[in-house]
Amino acid sequence: MIPDFERYGKQAVQQALNSLRETGGVVTIPAGRHETVGLELFSNTELHLDAGAVLSFSDDPEDHVIINTRWEGYEQPSYRPLLYAYEQQNVFVTGCGVLEGNGQRWWKMHGDPTAKVARPCFICFDKCDNVQLRDFRVQNSPAWTLHPLRSNNVLVSGVTIVNPADSPNTDGIDPESCSNVRIVGCYIDVGDDCIAVKAGTEDALETVPCENIAITGCTMVHGHGGVVLGSEMSGGIRHVAVSGCVFNGTDRGIRIKTRRRRGGSVEGLTVSGVVMHDVTCPVIVNMMYYCGKDGTEPFVADPNPQPVDDGTPHVRHIQLSDIQVSGCRSAAVCLYGIPESPVEDISLSNMHIELVDADPETPVMCARSHPMNHAGIYAEYVKGLHLEGVILTGVEGPERQFVSVETV
Fold it and tell me: What is d(CA 164, CA 171) in angstroms, rounded to the nearest whole number?
């Protein structure tokens, strides 16, 4: 079915989707530029973008429904995502066309204390089963770009995501509290994390893990992090495999971030066959992450052990191998545990990291860290650190700085 744009204008695509609500089917967007309001998709429905098609979403808040959904880890009022499905199955977005988010107006809401409603994500399928996003280009997202949420069996393949480097919180792909996710062959150039695996915060209404995530053959350009786990991880993140990826100009490469009172665990991460260039820090584990709600409270960076309880985060069973890094601008590896819950069982093998001159004030984003330049491997509160075939060049000072590290 091709939407009747002449008759229905920017409501045309939703009218076409509504007509397939009971039967399912394909809505095809033909070549040309077409204006639309935010869209809701239904089970057994495919939105297909022909080559040359540009589906341009309205930036007028009056055209978008306000819903309660999880945003930045907990439920709050938000404008409904531009493409949205809730409790549906077999929902597909395909084709070689373009989804245009017109995010410039939305970005001005970032940091506005008077804003009572969160900006919309671009695509969010919540509590859905069998989701496929394939081959299209998506650009200028109002906030997070692709946000599979509490969904199962999700495929993101061959998608290109481009948001300006200065666009706030425009993460590329953020699977949150999902299971069985495959992200394959995507190109991501965004204003925040390229891929961020999440599982809600301590304020979420339900605790749902994010697990069985495979990230393969992707290219990440710019962005604050290449592949990031957290900081929303209260439901637990486990069984994540990253392989065959290229990071070029991302601030950090592989990054795990959390803090006290968040609870949950990150465990079972493997990274292999990765190439990085022009990164601040290729590998960082930070259990004192200070951004966001409560991030600057004294307990976050307190060097004294705190009681172990449900709010204590855990990071364990991490394996990184076969990684080549050139143009590292700050430190080779930074591992920051907390005294009551050290980073456990982390292995680094067959890695070659070249450090280069950089701004000596380059931060590594940890509450108790200091700016680093030409630094090697820094580890604090780690239990079970395995190093094999790790080659560092361009280090100034000691290659290894260990504080409260057991079993090396």
Answer: 11
Counting every residue written for the chain, the total comes to: 408
pLDDT tens-digit map of 154-210: 999 999 999 999 999 999 999 999 999 999 999 999 999 999 999 999 988 899 999
Domain boundaries, the chain: 5-406
**Known catalytic residue: 224?**
yes
Least Cα distance to 36 among 84, 76, 69 occurs for 84
Can 126 be counted among the known catalytic residues?
A: no
pTM given for the model: 0.96
Partners of 343 in the β-ladder: 382
Helices in 161-235 by DSSP H: which ranges? none
Per-residue CA distances from 406 to 8, 42, 337 (Å): 67, 53, 12
Token pair for residue 30? 């033909």
The count of other CB atoms within 10 Å of the CB of residue 348 is 23
- The rounded Cα 160 to chain-centroid distance in angstroms is 15
Query: Which superfamily does 5-406 belong to?
Result: Single-stranded right-handed beta-helix, Pectin lyase-like (2.160.20.10)
Collapse the DSSP code of 140 into the 3-class scheme (helix H, G, I; strand E, B; otherwise coil) and give the result.
coil
The token duo for 96 is: 């070689």
The active-site residue out of 174, 192, 193, 251 is 192
DSSP-derived letter for residue 105 is H
